[in-house]
Amino acid sequence: MGFPLLFRQTRPGKDGNLFEIIKFRTMLNENDRNGKPLPDEDRLTSFGVWLRSTSLDELPELINVLRGDMSIVGPRPLLIEYLPLYSSEQARRHNVRPGITGWAQVNGRNAISWKKKFELDVWYVDNNSIWLDIKIISMTFLRVMVRSGIDDDIGVGQEKFKGNQ
pLDDT tens digits, residue range 104-133? Predict the structure, then answer.
């Protein structure tokens, strides 16, 4: 898949503060003739598909947890480019630290709409507790074991968020 083995990308965290998320690399660094990256499905390797299907590509995020940038449980940190697309209600997802797993992940992950995902993220913000976190961690373990709702057949995941209609 190329080097470095770890993939780093800037993402918004709590209060919209930026941090560098760390994951295992699952795609090749391949570009077209114009230097633009090829589509994800053309860069994703078979080993990358396996890493994503087992959620092992998320393990390096434990470093982000130790640094205080992330929590084990919370809304997943999304791309910076989405920040101006959120409604004020959706932006509330940044009132807590982002997590390795979250309420939206155990309730459909990439198989649910963006609208539903944001509703679940905000619900978590309003209802978070140690007991809810324990429930989410338990549900995550079960979802990962059965590989439920992780990605599409080729491991690419959900289409990009384009804002609210």
Answer: 999 988 889 999 999 999 999 999 999 999
34-52: per-residue pLDDT in tens?
Answer: 888 888 778 887 888 888 7
Q: What is the pTM of this model?
A: 0.84
For 83, what's the count of Cα atoms within 13 Å in the CB-facing half-sphere? 14
117: enclosing H helix or E strand:
helix 114-127
* Residue 104 vs residues 27, 47, 118: alpha-carbon distances, Å: 24, 26, 8
Residues β-bridged to residue 101? 73
- Phi, psi for residue 18 in degrees, rounded to 5: -85, 145
State phi, psi for 17 to the nearest 5 degrees: -65, 135
As a whole number of angstroms, the distance between CA 29 and CA 49 comes to 15
Kindly state the DSSP code that residue 37 receives in the 8-state scheme.
B
3-class DSSP state of 24: strand
- Does position 154 have pLDDT exceeding 50, yes or no? no
